[in-house]
Amino acid sequence: MKKKILLFFCVVTAIIIVVAFLFNTKRNFSKKCGLSVYRFEQDFFSINSDSFDVHFIKIQEKYPNFFNDTTLDFKHDVLLNDTLNMILDSVQSVFQDRLPNIEKIEKGFCNYKKYFPLDSFSIYTYIEGTFDYRYPVVFADQKIFISLDLFLGENHTFYNAFPEYIKLSHDTTYLPSTCFVTLAGRHTPPPRLNNFLSSMLYYAKAYFFAQHMLDDVPASHLFKCSEEKITWCKNNEKVIWEYMIENDYLFSSSPELVERFISLAPFSKFGLDIDRNSPGSVGVWLGLQILNSYANQNDVSFIDVLNETDYTKILNKSGYKP
Questions:
Q1: Are residues 231 and 201 in the same domain?
Q2: Number of domains, the chain
Q3: 182 lies in the same domain as 194
Q4: Is residue 284 within 8 Å of 257, Cβ to Cβ?
Q5: N or C: which end of the chain has fewer CB within 10 A?
Q6: By residue range, what is the domain housing residue 218?
Q7: C-alpha pair distances (Å), 60 with each of 52, 56, 66, 74, 90
């Protein structure tokens, strides 16, 4: 009986050790990648106004990128600005001490280091106050700058003046995909946009990049639209492709096509009753399907696809037939 009890405890102990090992291995995986997150808005606005001059020097040294505007009085124009402090309160209520979905960004960073072991980036958060929805995330100097006041949720009162399709993307749900779509510009050669096909495939590369960084990221997160609109694209993929072919759009140099099928918009402009069912960048969605087909049908690496600028070659060798 004693032997059975002893055996039982040995087995339980072994299980606990194995589970603990696996847990720690998973938990420490992102730590090995070394992603650093700096909360500028927290550090800056935590300065006591009475001792501002003393502590401001340290903040300047830590965050030199934020102090390029020499016309600002950073104490009165920023620290003591009532509007910015109101925005900060909203940001703090959503983001507190840990960014929502940071685990997905950390995992994406680990994938990034696999593909680009000699490259790196850090995350810097801030609040800006103008609510310029064109630049929720910016990449520069090996840093991803995130304007947290543009990720407070689509129903936030700060966004009341935005069109509905713009409001949708201002949620923490879209934070990981926005970061990596933005970062893609660092790893795609300058475009030679001679025709509609080259525009489709060039802009689709950013989403192709983000797909490889963020495992199983939904297309609706990449394209910042409803899942219903992505489903519409999938159900009508053949029709969309035939429409482009029949109208000789692929090799057209008309800038109008970029506005109709690539630019940020509530829906694409086929000139049909079904337009409102489509996402605004259906041409880019189509381009992503071609890139994925090209990668799957040929002996090319992820990096090869990013670097390939012969877009006719990509189309011809993709075997794309929806």
A1: yes
A2: 2
A3: no
A4: no
A5: N
A6: 189-318
A7: 12, 6, 8, 11, 24
**Alpha-helical runs (H) found in the chain:** 2-33, 40-45, 52-62, 82-95, 102-115, 164-167, 175-183, 196-213, 219-223, 227-235, 237-246, 255-261, 282-297, 302-307, 311-318
Condensed to tens digits (0 to 9), the pLDDT of residues 200-256 reads 999 999 999 999 999 999 999 999 999 999 999 999 999 999 999 999 999 999 999
Amino acid code (one letter) for 144: I
**Phi, psi angles (nearest 5°) of residue 130:** -95, -10
**CA–CA separation, 314 and 320 (whole Å):** 10
Name the token pair of 97: 């001490």
- 129 and 106 in a common domain: yes
CA distance 232 to 230: 5
Picking from 186, 220, 235, the residue at the C-terminal end of a domain is 186
Is residue 141 in a domain?
Answer: yes
Q: What would you measure as the largest C-alpha separation in the chain, in angstroms?
A: 85
25 belongs to a structural domain: no
Provide, rounded to the nearest whole percent, the portion of the chain with pLDDT above 90. Answer: 85
Residue where a domain stops, chosen among 186, 202, 232: 186
pTM of the prediction? 0.87
